Amino acid sequence: MASVGRFTARLLRNPAVLRAGRQWQQTARCSVVAGSAQHTLSVRKRIEDMKKAALLGGGQKRIDKQHEKGKLTARERIELLLDQGSFVEYDMYLEHDCTDFGMEKEKYPGDSVVTGRGTINGRVCFVFSQDFTVFGGSLSGAHAKKICKIMDQAMLVGAPVIGLNDSGGARIQEGVESLAGYADIFQRNVNASGVVPQISLIMGPCAGGAVYSPALTDFVFMVKDTSYLFITGPDVVKLVIK
Q1: What one-character-per-residue DSSP string does 167-230 give?
Q2: Is 89 exposed, middle or buried (0-12, 13-18, 19+ CB in 10 A)?
Q3: pLDDT digits 0-9 by tens, 134-167
Q4: How far is the C-alpha of 114 from the C-alpha of 194, rounded, in Å?
Q5: Which residues form the CoA carboxyltransferase N-terminal domain (predicted)?
Protein backbone atom coordinates (compact mmCIF):
# COMPACT_ATOMS: atom_id res chain seq x y z
CA MET A 1 0.00 0.00 0.00
CA ALA A 2 2.87 2.35 0.84
CA SER A 3 4.47 1.79 -2.55
CA VAL A 4 1.17 2.51 -4.26
CA GLY A 5 0.89 5.75 -2.31
CA ARG A 6 4.41 6.84 -3.25
CA PHE A 7 3.74 6.02 -6.91
CA THR A 8 0.52 8.05 -6.85
CA ALA A 9 2.30 11.01 -5.24
CA ARG A 10 5.05 10.96 -7.88
CA LEU A 11 2.44 10.67 -10.62
CA LEU A 12 0.51 13.68 -9.35
CA ARG A 13 3.74 15.74 -9.24
CA ASN A 14 4.50 14.89 -12.87
CA PRO A 15 4.29 18.14 -14.94
CA ALA A 16 2.56 16.36 -17.81
CA VAL A 17 -0.11 14.98 -15.49
CA LEU A 18 -0.61 18.39 -13.88
CA ARG A 19 -1.01 20.04 -17.28
CA ALA A 20 -3.50 17.40 -18.37
CA GLY A 21 -5.46 17.88 -15.14
CA ARG A 22 -5.61 21.65 -15.55
CA GLN A 23 -6.70 21.29 -19.18
CA TRP A 24 -9.46 18.90 -18.16
CA GLN A 25 -10.68 21.30 -15.47
CA GLN A 26 -10.73 24.20 -17.92
CA THR A 27 -12.59 22.11 -20.50
CA ALA A 28 -15.13 20.97 -17.92
CA ARG A 29 -15.58 24.53 -16.63
CA CYS A 30 -16.10 25.89 -20.15
CA SER A 31 -18.60 23.12 -20.85
CA VAL A 32 -20.60 23.99 -17.72
CA VAL A 33 -20.55 27.72 -18.55
CA ALA A 34 -21.59 27.06 -22.15
CA GLY A 35 -24.40 24.76 -21.01
CA SER A 36 -25.60 27.30 -18.44
CA ALA A 37 -25.55 30.12 -21.00
CA GLN A 38 -27.46 28.00 -23.49
CA HIS A 39 -30.06 27.16 -20.84
CA THR A 40 -30.42 30.84 -19.92
CA LEU A 41 -30.92 31.82 -23.56
CA SER A 42 -33.48 29.03 -23.97
CA VAL A 43 -35.46 30.17 -20.92
CA ARG A 44 -35.27 33.81 -22.03
CA LYS A 45 -36.59 32.94 -25.48
CA ARG A 46 -39.42 30.93 -23.97
CA ILE A 47 -40.40 33.86 -21.75
CA GLU A 48 -40.27 36.25 -24.70
CA ASP A 49 -42.46 33.90 -26.76
CA MET A 50 -44.97 33.60 -23.91
CA LYS A 51 -45.05 37.37 -23.51
CA LYS A 52 -45.77 37.85 -27.21
CA ALA A 53 -48.55 35.26 -26.98
CA ALA A 54 -50.01 36.94 -23.88
CA LEU A 55 -50.07 40.34 -25.59
CA LEU A 56 -51.91 38.81 -28.56
CA GLY A 57 -54.62 37.24 -26.42
CA GLY A 58 -56.72 34.95 -28.60
CA GLY A 59 -54.82 35.90 -31.74
CA GLN A 60 -54.86 38.60 -34.39
CA LYS A 61 -57.99 37.27 -36.15
CA ARG A 62 -60.07 37.55 -32.98
CA ILE A 63 -58.60 40.96 -32.23
CA ASP A 64 -59.67 42.09 -35.70
CA LYS A 65 -63.20 40.79 -35.01
CA GLN A 66 -63.30 42.85 -31.82
CA HIS A 67 -62.35 45.95 -33.77
CA GLU A 68 -64.92 45.19 -36.47
CA LYS A 69 -67.61 45.25 -33.77
CA GLY A 70 -66.37 48.64 -32.62
CA LYS A 71 -64.89 47.13 -29.45
CA LEU A 72 -61.40 47.47 -28.01
CA THR A 73 -59.32 44.61 -26.65
CA ALA A 74 -58.78 44.06 -22.95
CA ARG A 75 -55.31 45.59 -23.05
CA GLU A 76 -56.37 48.57 -25.17
CA ARG A 77 -59.05 49.40 -22.60
CA ILE A 78 -56.57 49.32 -19.74
CA GLU A 79 -54.17 51.50 -21.70
CA LEU A 80 -56.87 54.14 -22.20
CA LEU A 81 -58.13 53.97 -18.61
CA LEU A 82 -54.89 54.24 -16.65
CA ASP A 83 -52.17 56.86 -16.55
CA GLN A 84 -49.59 56.22 -19.24
CA GLY A 85 -46.94 53.73 -18.18
CA SER A 86 -48.46 53.11 -14.75
CA PHE A 87 -49.88 49.64 -15.32
CA VAL A 88 -48.17 46.77 -13.51
CA GLU A 89 -49.55 43.43 -14.66
CA TYR A 90 -50.08 40.43 -12.40
CA ASP A 91 -49.95 36.75 -13.41
CA MET A 92 -49.30 37.44 -17.08
CA TYR A 93 -48.35 33.83 -17.80
CA LEU A 94 -50.98 32.01 -15.72
CA GLU A 95 -52.91 29.41 -17.74
CA HIS A 96 -56.00 27.33 -17.06
CA ASP A 97 -55.45 23.74 -15.89
CA CYS A 98 -58.51 22.11 -17.45
CA THR A 99 -57.87 18.80 -19.22
CA ASP A 100 -61.45 17.91 -20.19
CA PHE A 101 -62.88 18.24 -23.70
CA GLY A 102 -59.42 18.70 -25.20
CA MET A 103 -58.89 21.97 -23.33
CA GLU A 104 -55.26 21.07 -22.55
CA LYS A 105 -54.54 21.74 -26.23
CA GLU A 106 -55.96 25.27 -26.05
CA LYS A 107 -54.04 27.42 -23.64
CA TYR A 108 -53.22 31.11 -23.71
CA PRO A 109 -50.77 32.85 -21.34
CA GLY A 110 -52.80 34.97 -18.94
CA ASP A 111 -55.98 33.07 -19.85
CA SER A 112 -59.06 35.24 -20.47
CA VAL A 113 -58.42 38.21 -18.19
CA VAL A 114 -55.74 40.87 -17.74
CA THR A 115 -55.20 41.98 -14.14
CA GLY A 116 -52.94 44.38 -12.29
CA ARG A 117 -52.60 47.78 -10.70
CA GLY A 118 -52.00 51.29 -11.97
CA THR A 119 -52.96 54.88 -11.37
CA ILE A 120 -55.70 57.22 -12.55
CA ASN A 121 -54.75 60.87 -12.12
CA GLY A 122 -52.05 59.65 -9.78
CA ARG A 123 -54.32 57.58 -7.54
CA VAL A 124 -53.61 53.87 -7.18
CA CYS A 125 -56.32 51.47 -8.28
CA PHE A 126 -56.61 47.79 -9.13
CA VAL A 127 -58.15 46.69 -12.39
CA PHE A 128 -59.19 43.60 -14.29
CA SER A 129 -60.14 43.54 -17.95
CA GLN A 130 -61.80 40.44 -19.38
CA ASP A 131 -60.47 39.35 -22.76
CA PHE A 132 -63.29 38.35 -25.10
CA THR A 133 -60.77 37.07 -27.66
CA VAL A 134 -59.90 34.16 -25.33
CA PHE A 135 -62.80 31.75 -24.93
CA GLY A 136 -65.26 34.64 -25.10
CA GLY A 137 -63.89 36.05 -21.85
CA SER A 138 -65.41 33.09 -19.99
CA LEU A 139 -64.40 32.57 -16.39
CA SER A 140 -62.08 29.66 -15.56
CA GLY A 141 -60.56 28.74 -12.23
CA ALA A 142 -57.36 30.57 -13.21
CA HIS A 143 -59.38 33.60 -14.37
CA ALA A 144 -61.15 33.75 -10.99
CA LYS A 145 -57.88 33.45 -9.05
CA LYS A 146 -56.43 36.41 -10.91
CA ILE A 147 -59.44 38.60 -10.12
CA CYS A 148 -59.55 37.49 -6.48
CA LYS A 149 -55.86 38.32 -6.10
CA ILE A 150 -56.25 41.96 -7.12
CA MET A 151 -59.41 42.32 -5.01
CA ASP A 152 -57.52 41.07 -1.96
CA GLN A 153 -54.68 43.50 -2.70
CA ALA A 154 -57.13 46.37 -3.13
CA MET A 155 -58.76 45.71 0.24
CA LEU A 156 -55.34 45.40 1.86
CA VAL A 157 -54.19 48.85 0.74
CA GLY A 158 -57.60 50.58 0.54
CA ALA A 159 -57.65 51.17 -3.22
CA PRO A 160 -60.59 51.06 -5.66
CA VAL A 161 -61.34 48.01 -7.81
CA ILE A 162 -62.35 48.59 -11.43
CA GLY A 163 -63.72 45.74 -13.52
CA LEU A 164 -63.92 45.95 -17.31
CA ASN A 165 -66.45 43.20 -17.99
CA ASP A 166 -66.75 41.51 -21.37
CA SER A 167 -67.59 37.87 -20.70
CA GLY A 168 -69.94 35.11 -21.72
CA GLY A 169 -70.05 33.85 -18.14
CA ALA A 170 -68.81 30.56 -16.72
CA ARG A 171 -66.51 28.35 -18.76
CA ILE A 172 -68.72 25.31 -19.20
CA GLN A 173 -65.79 22.97 -19.86
CA GLU A 174 -64.60 23.49 -16.28
CA GLY A 175 -67.97 22.75 -14.70
CA VAL A 176 -68.25 23.37 -10.98
CA GLU A 177 -64.70 24.73 -10.73
CA SER A 178 -65.77 27.73 -12.77
CA LEU A 179 -68.87 28.20 -10.62
CA ALA A 180 -66.73 27.96 -7.48
CA GLY A 181 -64.57 30.71 -8.95
CA TYR A 182 -67.62 32.96 -9.18
CA ALA A 183 -68.47 32.16 -5.56
CA ASP A 184 -64.99 33.32 -4.53
CA ILE A 185 -65.44 36.59 -6.44
CA PHE A 186 -68.93 37.20 -4.99
CA GLN A 187 -67.55 36.67 -1.49
CA ARG A 188 -64.95 39.35 -2.12
CA ASN A 189 -67.57 41.69 -3.58
CA VAL A 190 -69.43 41.40 -0.27
CA ASN A 191 -66.28 41.72 1.85
CA ALA A 192 -65.18 44.82 -0.06
CA SER A 193 -68.59 46.51 0.14
CA GLY A 194 -68.23 49.69 2.17
CA VAL A 195 -64.48 49.14 2.45
CA VAL A 196 -63.20 50.11 -1.00
CA PRO A 197 -65.04 51.51 -4.05
CA GLN A 198 -66.05 48.86 -6.59
CA ILE A 199 -66.74 50.04 -10.12
CA SER A 200 -67.99 47.88 -13.00
CA LEU A 201 -67.88 48.80 -16.67
CA ILE A 202 -69.92 46.55 -18.95
CA MET A 203 -68.08 46.57 -22.26
CA GLY A 204 -70.00 43.92 -24.19
CA PRO A 205 -72.59 41.14 -23.87
CA CYS A 206 -72.32 39.65 -20.37
CA ALA A 207 -74.27 36.67 -19.07
CA GLY A 208 -74.69 34.61 -15.91
CA GLY A 209 -71.98 35.12 -13.31
CA ALA A 210 -70.59 37.99 -15.36
CA VAL A 211 -73.81 39.82 -14.41
CA TYR A 212 -74.10 38.89 -10.75
CA SER A 213 -70.72 40.29 -9.71
CA PRO A 214 -71.26 43.75 -11.27
CA ALA A 215 -74.67 43.87 -9.56
CA LEU A 216 -72.87 43.60 -6.21
CA THR A 217 -70.56 46.55 -6.93
CA ASP A 218 -71.14 50.23 -6.14
CA PHE A 219 -71.35 51.65 -9.67
CA VAL A 220 -72.23 50.03 -13.00
CA PHE A 221 -71.61 51.77 -16.33
CA MET A 222 -72.67 50.46 -19.74
CA VAL A 223 -71.88 51.30 -23.35
CA LYS A 224 -74.88 52.25 -25.48
CA ASP A 225 -75.72 49.70 -28.20
CA THR A 226 -72.78 47.51 -27.16
CA SER A 227 -73.38 46.39 -23.58
CA TYR A 228 -75.97 43.82 -22.54
CA LEU A 229 -76.65 42.06 -19.26
CA PHE A 230 -78.35 38.65 -19.28
CA ILE A 231 -79.21 36.70 -16.15
CA THR A 232 -78.87 33.59 -18.29
CA GLY A 233 -79.39 32.36 -21.85
CA PRO A 234 -82.81 32.28 -23.59
CA ASP A 235 -83.14 28.49 -23.44
CA VAL A 236 -82.80 28.45 -19.66
CA VAL A 237 -85.24 31.35 -19.28
CA LYS A 238 -87.84 29.54 -21.41
CA LEU A 239 -87.40 26.39 -19.36
CA VAL A 240 -87.84 28.22 -16.05
CA ILE A 241 -90.94 30.24 -16.98
CA LYS A 242 -92.86 27.29 -18.46
Answers
A1: --SB-GGGTHHHHHHHHHHHHHHHHHTTTS-EEEEE-SEEETHHHHHHHTSSEEEE-TTT-EEE
A2: middle
A3: 999 999 999 999 999 999 999 999 999 999 999 9
A4: 25
A5: 40-242
Closest by alpha carbon to 201, among 132, 127, 134, 119? 127
pLDDT digit string, tens, across residues 21-35: 667 666 666 666 566
DSSP state of 164: E
Q: Compute φ and ψ for 125, nearest 5 degrees.
A: -145, 160
Select the more confidently predicted residue: 142 or 172: 142
pTM of the predicted model as reported, rounded to 2 decimal places? 0.79
Asked if residues 161 and 123 have their Cβ atoms less than 8 Å apart, the reply is no
